[in-house]
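cron nightly-structures :: item 1 of 1
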Amino acid sequence: MQTEPTTQETKTIFNATRIVWYIFYVLEVLLAFRFILKLLGANASASFTELIYTLSSVPLTPFRFVFQNDAVGSSIFEWSTLLAMVVYWVLVWGIIKLVLMGRTVDIYKAENALEKQDSI
């Protein structure tokens, strides 16, 4: 008995992964802006800079004091922002893998994959 994924199931999984990646990209861009603004010593009282720092403070909170920041003058190399970017990438990659595990699999492909896993 062979099971094929339905069109609706495929669309649902595709849309779910697109939403997760989109949220991730927005978060990464926000953190990248923060990193660059800190590195270039941007004026923290400027509206744009203040907005970026405010929006990025919540996702950065768990990583804030993991590393000490390096500063030269007004430039700050924020290691915690880079750590957050990497951790969120790994987290999203894992979420996508979990979502993809929910799709229907052809029985023959599953058997072949299990045999390959068994031979390792």
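cron nightly-structures :: done
The helical segments are 7-39, 47-60, 79-101, 107-118.
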